[in-house]
Amino acid sequence: MFRPLLKVSWIAYRVEVAGSLFPSDPPEGTVDGRNAYRMLFIGDTAASGLGVLNHGLAVVSQTARFVAREHSVGCSWTTMTDTELTMARAARQLAETPVEVDAVVVVLGVPDVLQGTSATTWRNELVALTTAARRNTRPDCLIVVAAVPPMHHFRPLPRMVKRILSLQISRLNDASLSVAESIPGVTYSPFPSVDPGSPFIRESRNWKSAHSLWGKTLGASTALALSAQRRPESPGPSDHN
């Protein structure tokens, strides 16, 4: 019964994205250093760099650079992004794309929320994505799943629409958490705590601050998970430089 309202929100999202600012520079990056981590980011709007002038300011780069600083190592990263990328599409695309990385960071959710993806479908496709990542890379490849951002706080919306979006987001995040709790090496990273009345929310175009805040939180989750993944007898990841 809520799908018509979601469809309207989906159309509005596509129109807004079409007129939004995205960086034109390459999204890939490198931090020089020994024992470099290799990371793949899979995402939709935020991972595509919505609202910032260059990818160095976006959540992907912010996350990767945080990991490099936290571990005092090098880091390189690539992306698989599209503003309309869903979990199902990402799983299929990753299954068909040979990659060799130490960690896959999933920053998806907005298109799935607006298209009414069920929690069961989201969970199954996340498991499929995890399987594809580990088949293409290595059996113990770390998977970090970022929470779907609380986009119902970012815009002045009718109360009913906000309630629907909030419910959808909660369902998908709960499904992500259940996967993280059931599959070793999968980590769930919550969205940073934000006061709905703060300038960050009211001034919804302050994307630079949003990317920075999220990058620190996602970077901390990823760095901690990579630390936990290290075996006691190993000094860390092999040197990829």
Task: Write the topology of this structure.
Layout: H1 3-18, E1 29-31, E2 37-43, H2 59-71, E3 75-81, H3 87-95, E4 103-107, H4 110-114, H5 119-136, E5 142-146, H6 159-182, E6 186-189, H7 199-202, H8 207-229
Parallel strand pairs: 2-3, 2-4, 4-5, 5-6
Antiparallel strand pairs: 1-3
Helix pairs in contact: 2-8, 3-5, 5-6
Task: Give a short overview.
With 241 residues, this protein is of the alpha/beta class. The chain contains 8 helices and 6 strands.
- What Rg do the Cα atoms give? 17 Å
Please estimate the helix content.
40-55%
First-last Cα distance: 54 Å
Shape: globular
Question: Within the largest sheet, what's the order of strands?
Answer: 1-3-2-4-5-6
Beta content comes to 5-15%
The assigned structural class equals alpha/beta
Description of the molecule:
There is one protein chain. The chain is an alpha/beta fold and 241 residues long. It has eight helices and six strands, in the order αββαβαβααβαβαα. Strands 1-3-2-4-5-6 form a six-stranded mixed sheet, with helices on both faces. Helix 6 (159-182) links the parallel strand 5 (142-146) and strand 6. The longest helix has 24 residues, at 159-182. It is globular and about 50 Å long. The chain starts with a helix and ends in a 12-residue tail after the last helix. The model is unreliable at 231-241 (pLDDT under 50).
